[in-house]
User: What shape does this take?
Amino acid sequence: MALNWTEIHSVDELHEIWDNSIEKPAVFFKHSTRCSISSMALRAFERDWVSDDTQLFFIDLIANRDVSNLLAELSNVEHQSPQIIVTNNKTVLFSDSHGTIDAEKVQKLIH
Assistant: This one.
């Protein structure tokens, strides 16, 4: 992966991240490793993202479906794949999916 993603492997990790990501926005990217649309969305996001200190979290939907389901529950955002969810202080600021995932839009929102 081209960006400094923190990959979430367990529901315990997600709970900890969710509870602690209150000081600055967190970006969650849900990715299906079996889906070409998801791969294209991930590549486009990584290409267009301007590196900064934003917390970037990656969820592999195939390997960690329980984590993805929990994020949908915590955020109250219906599951999509691929999907981006931006949170701050346990509140969803923005979500998008598929071909409308846009790194520049996310960065403008959080800065």
Observations:
- The longest helix spans residues 36-48.
